[in-house]
């Protein structure tokens, strides 16, 4: 018979294994979230809706250029986070915001110096995306949180009537896009029996179709509208849509983006409606290659149509004592970046920084008290 200490160690080991207690568990870092509060809202002239929806944004400013960019001042941040709200009846307002509880010294420290990028980089290999088939997957979490935005992008359900997407799906930096006037959000639903009753088709994947809900209002940050997709403009490529009625599906909460090092296996995940696979929801994951304070650079395979997808990770939430997936970024677009004389291909996602979290959370909840825990 084994001596008592050995037995105890064995028992502990077994118990540990049963509880699945890895030595390192990726945890959601505790974030101090500042407050972004609307201060003054004024009416603007009704917009023209003249721009063509461009499903791909590009910026000549790569990671090194972003790292060199100066840290915005407090006043500049207030400008960037002020926002326009477009209503379904065509009226438009502009809201100025105040920012409270922001530690500028810390911001300068974290934003100014991100260190050297990781040396190893790969070009895209074979297509590593997965089309998601079957209603068991499409209608269940987390894939069920991916919705189609009527201008051609993807969005993610982040509350019971809110959808997060990319700003460029709504506004090209100068003007609202044509389709933004009657914006809708599409939910994949199985087709009714009678529509797909043709027996010869029964071997094909289950037919799904979009059911559309109108958008009541849309918020776009001024940081995007002013920037027009150059330099800093991509940093603010996000928009929040409020549906006319609740969607009744489970949604994925937003969270403050951890650093790339804190991500499980350094990876992010997202699903979207890539144009080259019409009607399919396409899922992928990949490693983050580079990061700046506002952007994640990665080489996930993606096609136009996937932009606006919520980039998520699954980590342990200490306060809730459970694993949680949260949206930490919005897939923006595709970039060729000149590096050491060689063009490098990157896909870019906008990170949800503490300030952006505060802003988007306020848009969702309408108060800041529920937005202090990122
Ligand atoms: C449009 O809707 C908003 C919000 O419901 C309202 O404040 C505004 O007056 C409306 N504008 C027009 C032109 O009807
Ligand atoms: C059912 O499939 C057959 C063979 O593909 C086709 O000829 C027929 O038109 C289809 N019927 C309907 C109602 O779609």
TrEMBL record:
Domain Peptidase S1: 141-281
Annotated signal sequence range: 1-19
Example of a GO MF term: serine-type endopeptidase activity
Primary location: secreted
InterPro entries: Glutamyl_endopeptidase, Peptidase_S1_PA, Peptidase_S1_PA_chymotrypsin, Trypsin_dom, TRYPSIN_HIS
Pfam family name, one: Trypsin
GO biological process: proteolysis
Gene Ontology cellular component list: extracellular space
Keyword terms, alphabetized: Disulfide bond, Glycoprotein, Hydrolase, Protease, Secreted, Serine protease, Signal
Localisation: Secreted
Family: Belongs to the peptidase S1 family.
Name of the protein in its database record: Serine protease 23
